[in-house]
Give the backbone structure.
Amino acid sequence: MFIKVTQSGSRRYAQLVESFRNAEGKPRQRTVCTLGRLEAGGEVDTLISSLQRARGVVPAVAALDGLRFTDSRQAGDVWALSELWRSLGFDALATSWRRSKTEVDVLACLRAMVINRLCDPSSKLGVLRWLETVALPVDFGFSQGLPEHQHLLRAMDVLDEYSDALGTRLATLMRPLIDQDLSVVFYDLTTVEVTGQTELEDDVRAYGRGKSGMVERQFVLSLVQTAEGLPIAHEVHAGNTAEAKTLLPMIRGLLARYPLKRVVLVADRGLLSVGNIEELGKLQAQLKKDGRDIALDYILAVPAARYGDFVEDLKRLNEAQEKRQDQTQEWCAETTWQDKRLVVAHDRQAAQRRTAARNKAIQDLITLGQEWCGTLDAQDGGKKRKGRPLSDSGAKARFYHAVKDAHLAHVIKVDLKAELFSYTIDEDRKRYLELLDGKLLLVTNTDAPPQEVVQRYKSLADIERGFRVLKSDIEIGPVHHRLPQRIRSHALVCFMALILYRVMRMRLKAAKRSESPSTLLEQLKRIHQQTVQTGDGKTLTGLTEMTPAQKSLFAALELTPPTSSDLVKPLL
């Protein structure tokens, strides 16, 4: 049997036809029955639907008819960060506040706030809005429903209340990632802007000079990271805290939490002081007395303002280098300072650029000064000019401010007390600055070669990149919290987000991938949980199909991609 299509006027019909042989054995056809019209919605469609229902199959046309996409949620980035969190064992942090009597799911709140900083950084109210747009893993938490704003704030209070236990537990979880025998640690500080004008007891908000150079209300955040770029400790200080005073407490806290055998501390210029060096020596002696065999080494940069203390040494080293036949672009040498080892590095190209830029700025100011001198001489000769006449006092004031804005007041001296407009160039000062150009001075007690000392210090730049991640990708500031404990908890959340960011970076680098963690998350963010409703009222939920590139990113992170059953289905 077969289906035969016939036409009558404008309508088409389907007939069931049978082939047979007549009495003479010749092939013939006969119509068994007419199935009906072939138009959409005609008898044939009805018959097909009835036959499929009899077999228990939903007709394809009926299933797609009236299909509606009712919900779409980001899933890939949240899943990757949640799995990374678990792979690091961070769920065990909950033991830190097990004595807390709060009914808030602190661990789920902490995890949500940390992951939010990497996916869509926003305020705590913004976290609640973000949670409504993402698909959470089934065991993420919030079994009683998504949290409210007060729950997040209460969780922050608990985190600060148990901060010591939490810090110790976090250090324990991160120990496998740290070289215990020789740990080169980098230490630096940055400032974070805060809002609000109220004054509170134990307030960490204070006015100080920020990294932007402006005086603003802020707090100071110190950060410790390993040579591999992994953050391992942080601290919040009042906004007017001197950098040098933070060094020793940080070292003591680091040694208390990590069983290190040797520490090579690398820190920037603001942390060098005679007092700090003496205290580091006392700490070394105390550790030895306590039976802890720890080598405490340091590489500290000398502040540029103190380079004048080393003029004679720098002249001698320069002269010795000029006599050498090997005139490389960079050279390292060493001398002593207060019985300490002083390593000096010189970059000829950097020195030439700095000297050329200064000379150009000086020449531009000299040209401006000569122009005004000519104008004043012309006026004294009776020659008129457009606009208001230029006076000697006006020329002195304007030229002085131009010199000051160019940061050259120590080279170009404007005589403000003289009756006539005049200035001089301090050639000795100019030669002195040229001597310092391209120089880097490092005080150290290590026995490493000078080139290795310089290279280790230059690696400190990676912690600056970590601060940029905190301020751009994670958006640590400006901080709108008012209470000190909330500010400290906010810093903790951002610090943990930085840990996840840097672990992703380490795994991508190990897999020889060129993507940054931010680019990776943007790619995974395109994996969505889709919810559709069929024409017959059924609701279906599934994941968008992952591309080979997205699957390879999960492989680079050493994580398992999600399946539809791994995610909480939305309540619609």
